[in-house]
Amino acid sequence: MTIWDTFLWVVLPYAALVLFLGGHVWRYRRDKFGWTSRSTQILESRWLAWGSNLFHYGALGAIAGHVIGILIPNWLTSAIGISEFAYHFISAIPGSIAGLVCTAGLIILIARRSAFSRIRRLTTAIDIAVYVLLAALVGLGTYATVFVNAFGAGYDYRSTVAIWFRGLFWLHPQPQLMATAPLVYQLHTAIPWALYALWPFSRLVHVWSLPLQYLGRPYVLYRSRLAVARR
Amino acid sequence: MKVRAQVGMVMNLDKCIGCHTCSVTCKQVWTNRPGTEYVWFNNVETKPGLGYPRRWEDNEHWRGGWELDRKGRLRLRAGGQVRKLISIFWNPDLPTIDDYYEPWTYDYETLTEAPLSERDPVARPHSQLTGKEMSVSWGPNWDDDLAGAPQTAPQDPLLRGIEEHVKLAYEQAFMFYLPRICEHCLNPSCVASCPSGAMYKREEDGIVLVDQEKCRAWRFCISGCPYKKVYFNHHTGKAEKCTLCYPRIEAGLPTICSETCVGRIRYLGLVLYDVDRVHEAASVRDPKDLLQAQLSLFLDPADEAVQRQARRDGIPDDWLEFARRSPVHTLAVRFQVALPLHPEYRTLPMVWYVPPLSPVVNALETDGYEADPDQVFPAIEAMRIPIAYLANLLAAGDEGVVRRVLARLAAMRAFMRKQQVLGVREEELAARVGMQPADLEDMYRLLAIAKYEDRYVIPQAHTEVAQRLAELPGTCGLDFAGGPGNCGALPRPAQGLNENFMLKRHPADRFPSRRLPVLNPNSTRPDRSAPQGSAG
Q: Which terminus of chain B faces fewer neighbouring Cβ atoms within 10 Å, N or C?
């Protein structure tokens, strides 16, 4: 346990969370007009069909896997009858597929963004930072899943990373759990905090706008000018 | 019955000269900004032709608008809510900018900075997307006046099925112009396609708008509109569309495309309709019945029962008076000489068109047929523009509808010609098209004389409402930084009622005062000479 560990596994997460929450409040109040996915499909559609679908669906799969592996404690999965072996099987096979799909998508997206000058011209510094962080995050995560968990020696992150992560939210961080984790897990765990800190200031805010409210909504919407004005 | 008012437009294609003034003035006002270089809220297409974006009318490909499912229920052609959420990461029906055109400008500096030389300097086109030099090979109006038609016109989706009747040979070529804006539909499929709920139809006047603060760039409005009149601003990452110049409409002024129309082809006015029956009307089985279904929605503003219900539904009395004098109601409902654009899309569009008469085909004349101007009705069959083509455009393929309209227009001409040249009042002509002679005269005044006051009968928005609106920021469409409606950045004007409304400047500051709606009996102009304190 060094001061470096305290910084990485205590200070950084909380600082990032403050920026994440405060940033979103600020952005939503000050910049609804800038709150958009900023799609570039109108400028290039063929590569996006592969890149965007692979990346997003892969990412959704990976996020679901993280919810199961990190947020749900060991005792809960065993209580509902999922053995350690079964868990490992579920995390390794579908996890690897999701990671590889997501990585493939991201590679296509990055290639597309660099290859087409019409899109490159619309790319901001924050976009580039997001791409770099995402590439590191997705790359490391996929590497860990495929080469450590599925085909490697394996690493029981559920008894270290997961407990440390949940501890953050009980305001009981245990940095010592992370200090001994393998480097690839340390990196994969530390990098997201930079992404979360950047999140509210990037186009990633569109994630929170996934329009589930569209389901079951009446198709044609009316608004009164008065109602708009009173808003 | 629930009565709503809608600002509708009619364009008289007979008088459109294809000058593009409407497009240019619209562009100057609304889309002269980064990200909208390729966007024309108003454009004028030559028919037959590909249009803008290319082949927009081919909705078997683009899948815009509505259709009936097997059980006869109305649904979005591109798929419903679940389908949209599944394809939210990539919209399979979205046109790309190349379907519109790659916008360009010229390096004018090479002209202004050129040293004295033997040869004239040349300004080269540069892409406004990449900044690089480009060779221009397609534009928003590439096939204007049938330019390149031998190559492009055969791809016109409207020629499908009538190819053998349509010769594109020079001697038999036909063309006419089709100015297009957003249709501000009664059953807008763009609104229905927007997952964010950012698009809406205004209850008061039916104008369809995009809430710039709620748009999240899911892009389904763009593909969902069968007319391709919602655009994507790639600079802001938000959808934008024709606003029907609502800040002007609210002030009782015509849209900028109408105001500047050289041919005086445009008419603006109110239509009252029964909003409860919109869904039912859009769901009639045969697309050829959609015209009648939409007409059945429109309510007679002279009917006292309608007036009573309209008042109950919050429509002000002066609006009812304007509805009674509406040229749109007159042309579309009373005379029935205006037709909706592509009713088969089932969006119940509200920009209607008077189809063009056209010269009688030469080839037939040389076959011994004399084009006698008084042979009104046979001449319609011999017109240069095939009726089948107009029917594909304006009547879901129903040629009978177009024939009836053209007969009325031709009868009006013949009737007025005889009356004015020969002094003969041939009432039988009116009877043959199911009209009264006085109707034909009214129609003549409206279509041929077309006084400003008769063309634009637009009630002002209510000032007591306006006052409250003006006090609130963020209600102005496209009013973001650098946007054309950037009312937030303008100094707040003094307390005159009209002055504070939307435009944030008195209309008279921009337009000659005689262009103010002199028809509005309730219009009170604020005394602009009175001391009103400093603006801002």
A: C
pLDDT at B370 > cutoff 70? no
As a whole number of angstroms, the distance between CA B392 and CA B355 comes to 12
Tokens at B64, concatenated: 């815009």
Whether B5 shows a pLDDT value over 70: the answer reads yes
> Does the ipTM exceed 0.85?
yes
Distance, CA of A121 to CA of B132 (rounded, Å): 11
Q: Which two tokens stand for residue B265?
A: 């082809």
Contact assignment for A215 to B219 by CB distance below 8 Å: no
**Exposure of B170 in the CB half-sphere (CA atoms within 13 A):** 2
| One-letter amino acid for residue B232 of the chain | F
Closest partner residue to A211 (CB to CB) among B196, B203, B237 is B196
Query: Using CB atoms and an 8 Å cut-off, which of residues 462-491 of chain B contact chain A?
Result: 465, 468-469, 472, 474-475, 480
User: Which chain A residues touch B132 with a CB distance below 8 Å?
Assistant: 117
Higher local confidence (pLDDT), B115 or B378: B115
* Residue with token string 């249709």: B183
pLDDT at B512 over 80: no
**Cα of B246 vs its chain's centroid, Å:** 14
| Contact: B195, A214; criterion CB under 8 Å | yes
Please report, for chain A, the start and end positions of each structural domain, with discontinuous segments joined by +. 3-208
For residue A196, how far is the Cα from the chain centroid? 8
pTM (two decimals): 0.88
- The string of pLDDT tens digits covering residues B210-248 is 999 999 999 999 999 999 999 999 999 999 999 999 999
Indicate if the pLDDT at residue A110 is higher than 90: yes
Report the distance separating Cα B26 and Cα B37, nearest Å: 12
Cα–Cα nearest to A223, from B469, B331, B163: B469
| Upper half-sphere CA count for residue B248 (Cβ side, 13 Å) | 22
**Peptide bond just before B48 cis, omega within 30 deg:** yes
Residue B265 has pLDDT above 50, yes or no: yes
pLDDT per residue as tens digits for the range A82-95: 888 888 888 889 99
Rounded Cα distance between B456 and B327, Å, is 8
Residues constituting chain A: 231
One of 3.30.160.150, 3.30.420.40, 1.20.950.20, 1.20.1250.20 is the CATH number of A3-208, namely: 1.20.950.20
Residue B309, Cα to own-chain centre: how many angstroms? 29
User: Residue B486 — pLDDT band, cuts 50, 70, 90?
Assistant: very low
